[in-house]
Amino acid sequence: MGEIKPLPYFKDRYKVDLVFYVDEIVQVLQDRFSQHGKPVLFLLYGKSTDSGNYSKPASFEGIEKFDTDLGTLHPILTECRVIKSEMELGLIQYANDVSSEAHIEVMRQAKPGMKEYQLESIFLHHSYRYGACRHCSYTCICATGENSSILHYGHTAAPNDRTLNDGDMALMDMGAEYNFYGSDITCSYPINGKFNSNQATVYNAVLKAHNAVISHMQPGVKWVDMHKLAEQTILESLKNEKIIHGDIADMMTRRLGAVFMPHGLGHLLGIDTHDPGGYPEGLERPKEPGLSSLRTIRELKEGMVITVEPGCYFIDALLRPARDDPVSSKFFNWEEIEKYKSFGGVRIESDLYVTAQGCKNLTNCPRETWEIEAVMAGVPWPPRASVTKAENGLPKA
Amino acid sequence: MGEIKPLPYFKDRYKVDLVFYVDEIVQVLQDRFSQHGKPVLFLLYGKSTDSGNYSKPASFEGIEKFDTDLGTLHPILTECRVIKSEMELGLIQYANDVSSEAHIEVMRQAKPGMKEYQLESIFLHHSYRYGACRHCSYTCICATGENSSILHYGHTAAPNDRTLNDGDMALMDMGAEYNFYGSDITCSYPINGKFNSNQATVYNAVLKAHNAVISHMQPGVKWVDMHKLAEQTILESLKNEKIIHGDIADMMTRRLGAVFMPHGLGHLLGIDTHDPGGYPEGLERPKEPGLSSLRTIRELKEGMVITVEPGCYFIDALLRPARDDPVSSKFFNWEEIEKYKSFGGVRIESDLYVTAQGCKNLTNCPRETWEIEAVMAGVPWPPRASVTKAENGLPKA
């Protein structure tokens, strides 16, 4: 494993006050903290509001010589994680810069005949070789054609192994991680580089929702309202295109937005892709379709980093029950929807930092259809000044 | 996660006799195997002779309705894994073909000024994009300069982050995995593409050992004897170069080979990089330096796949005690060894299949110093007919 580094190395690297070797822990804690009796160790133990699982508190040989407190630390540390420091923001911005560039590289190389996993490989390579990002925040979702309506595509049993066809849409949900801080970005585009009419319809519906949410975000705004704004914007676009008809407010009451967008609008992002703190003590997860998938329903606060990721999908398993229900069925133009049967879906996802007055988009990918078509045809995409493709090393972090 | 595939899909894909959904397991087992009373389930449970840990037997809700046998299956399945079928060999050969090509790609792109992790990224990308290998068998060891004497370099605390210098040796231990079957290959070469005299000395000592072992391998040969053959070959070369002096047999008795090669000659390879079966019931791990690191001491059998990976390293932590010991100290020419102080080390590793008459090398990398220099200068390396760089898909497996 190599030589053991001296203690000052770790003190300097991690900017901590005291450093000791692990096998000294019992002695050091006893020597330093026994003035007022048996020392109390505050351990991190709490429930993930996403999985329902509990975090495993730290342990070591001899821990029974101390009192432990399992309740105090978790809510405090979780709240610390919700509001990002400048240094944390810098890391998330860097991961976003690298991922944005890597997405553009993938976009440019994608061609009919390739395999989805080859796009994954290009993303990973670009992020690591040029961005020093050894890991991604999550398994890459490289979904094309019908697969783009499978929200968690890309896992071991569906390992991005489809061949890309002319006429497919691609939904690329990939984010690099740097020094443990993640990014989470989705780009959707036609594999052949040109949006056809149906593709542009669905894409623009989602983009309008994405932009509407971003333009409304600021401290004090309720995230549930942003989710509903995205749903409503998408429903309005689909109504304009005669894919659905009837009263939008009525559809919203019946939660029909969730037929097209069966996931939450976004989630906190940081050390975890789905960062904790979405449901602090007292906030309960909603029960209604769509809203029940929200990983937070908090009010926005300055310093939060949160994803904005509206989507519109044509999923048989959700359209079928909507059609079978006599009340919801009448809102849908089933003849028109038939044309989107094997369309899949579109998602557009950016990472937003909430500022005092509004928000800042940390993601820098082409979003307008004409921008995407131009970038895929080789037009340069303005790189941020902070990103260099230097072959020779880690950025000055 | 996508639609659940129908049962016949799994029956065909995994070539099994019967397929049911997981939630039917209790019912199906009871219905089909209760004729003679409570059915007995043979579960896989046994000790890893490497880690000392025990495998966790399979479990499911309702397993208490059955009798379980934890002892029968493990030795039988382990022995099945020691001898590879033709289909298994095909997968290991494919993983070797992809990895050999990827190593050559890395070799060609390596230049002073790059970072070690960039070589890792090139390997991963080549294996995935062109070989459909999503995973590697183990974390890539991309060690250059002094790092090449750190046997398990590349881990999270030493993440291949050094800058490549002109004059460094590189020790690249990387292997792609395909359909769960692995490869395990090490190439060592000078970063600037030209061996200097000291580099050629150490490299050729190791290559001679690598080739000597391969030329002796056949069913019935004891692996401990191969390990000793490698040690002896290396010691002889070092003696010719006046790095050590004295009687080789004497050095062997004193286990001084382990000062330069403090790891085993090789290990079984398959589903696991360190495949099980190295120490079946009755075989005890040796205690002597060097030999104690052997992951097997078996006799070779037709159908085994085993790595041959001799190495020669200059490790301060091992040379120091050898110097402090008045008896061993006199075998070393300390003035000469001083010249190799920051040399690091060399390892050459190939994957061998034991045949009825001898063995077959599954790895296809340039090994002679002149071959390596030529390949690094751009001379084509003869690809095997079985390997294609087709962009468009998985090989017909």
Automatic annotation (TrEMBL), chains A, B:
GO terms for molecular function: metal ion binding; metallopeptidase activity. Its cofactor is Mn(2+). InterPro entries: Creatin/AminoP/Spt16_N, Creatinase/aminopeptidase-like, Pept_M24, X-Pro_dipept-like. It comes from the Eukaryota. Residues 91-356 form the Peptidase M24 domain. One of its GO terms (biological process) is proteolysis. PANTHER family: PEPTIDASE D, PTHR48480. This is Peptidase M24 domain-containing protein. It comes from Aegilops tauschii subsp. strangulata (Goatgrass).
